[in-house]
């Protein structure tokens, strides 16, 4: 039996899980969820994940794991996508925590509002504040990438996969990525990795 992933094709959080599993060679059975139709709030899904969020991964033996970066960490352990040095591993965790608190909460939210809901500042007055926070996050990434090719351990890791997921589509949330040459160069390095596939192909 394959692992079952409850996912949404356009979600960056779901994409990062699909990408790491593809690059590590794990077969997935995908259950597509329509978040706009409240698929995650049905009694059937809440019985699997009471939090009502995707991605949610169900193992062959019935165990359930949610939160995208937790799934990444579980499957990256012992592979080339996770450093073996303790400090480098801690830096991966640092970037994953930062991604969910300071990056995804601005860039992904602005993208959802504009790209999926078709909203402008008039309909969503949060957007200017989301853009401000998102540009601050992109500035942090640009400054880091001035001296590093990747985000942790000197090589491609799940830290890069996690940050890539929403960064490479940040323009869909109103962000001007042309202001970030180092980020754009890093995006191309991620795309050059073995087994990389775009969001709509996994």
Question: Could you characterize what this model shows?
Answer:
The protein is 49% helix and 8% strand. With 202 residues, it is of the alpha+beta class. The chain has 2 domains: 3-76, Glutaredoxin; 86-196, Glutathione S-transferase Yfyf (Class Pi), Chain A, domain 2 (Up-down Bundle). Strands 2-1-3-4 form a 4-stranded mixed beta sheet, covered by helices on one side. α1 links the parallel β1 and β2. α1 packs parallel to α3, α4 packs antiparallel against α5 (127-145) and α5 packs across α7 (181-191). The model has no long low-confidence stretch (mean pLDDT 97).
Proportion of helical residues: 40-55%
Largest sheet properties: 4 strands, mixed
- By DSSP (H or I, 4+ residues per run), the number of helices equals 7
Q: At CATH's second level, what is the architecture of the largest domain?
A: Up-down Bundle
CATH class of the largest domain: Mainly Alpha
Distance between the termini: 19 Å
Write down the Rg.
Answer: 17 Å
Are there runs of 5+ residues with pLDDT below 50, and where? Answer: none
Helix-strand makeup class: alpha+beta
CATH topology of the largest domain: Glutathione S-transferase Yfyf (Class Pi), Chain A, domain 2
Q: What are the secondary-structure elements, in order, as H or E?
A: EHEHEEHHHHH
Overall tally of structural domains? 2
Beta percentage is 5-15%
Task: Write down the overall mean pLDDT.
Answer: 97
For the biggest β-sheet, the strand order reads 2-1-3-4
Overall 3D shape: globular
Number of DSSP-assigned strands: 4
């Amino acid at each position: 039996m394959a692992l079952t992933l409850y996912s949404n094709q356009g979600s960056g959080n779901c994409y990062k899980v699909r990408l790491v599993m593809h690059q590590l060679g794990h077969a997935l059975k995908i259950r597509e969820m329509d978040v706009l139709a409240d698929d995650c709030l049905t009694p059937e899904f809440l019985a699997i994940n009471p939090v009502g969020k995707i991605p949610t991964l169900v193992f062959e033996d019935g165990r359930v794991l949610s939160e995208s970066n937790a799934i990444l960490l579980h499957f990256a352990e012992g592979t080339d996508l996770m450093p073996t040095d303790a400090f480098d591993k801690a830096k991966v965790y640092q970037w994953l925590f930062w991604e969910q608190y300071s990056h995804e909460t601005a860039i992904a939210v602005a993208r959802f509002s504009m790209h999926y809901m078709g909203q402008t500042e008039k309909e969503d007055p949060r957007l200017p504040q989301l853009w401000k926070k998102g540009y601050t996050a992109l500035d942090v990434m640009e400054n880091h990438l001035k001296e590093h090719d990747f985000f942790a351990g000197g090589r491609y890791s799940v830290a890069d996969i996690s940050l890539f997921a929403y960064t490479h589509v940040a323009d869909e949330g109103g962000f001007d990525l042309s202001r970030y040459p180092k980020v754009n160069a890093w995006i191309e390095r991620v795309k050059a990795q073995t087994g990389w596939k775009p969001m709509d192909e996994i």
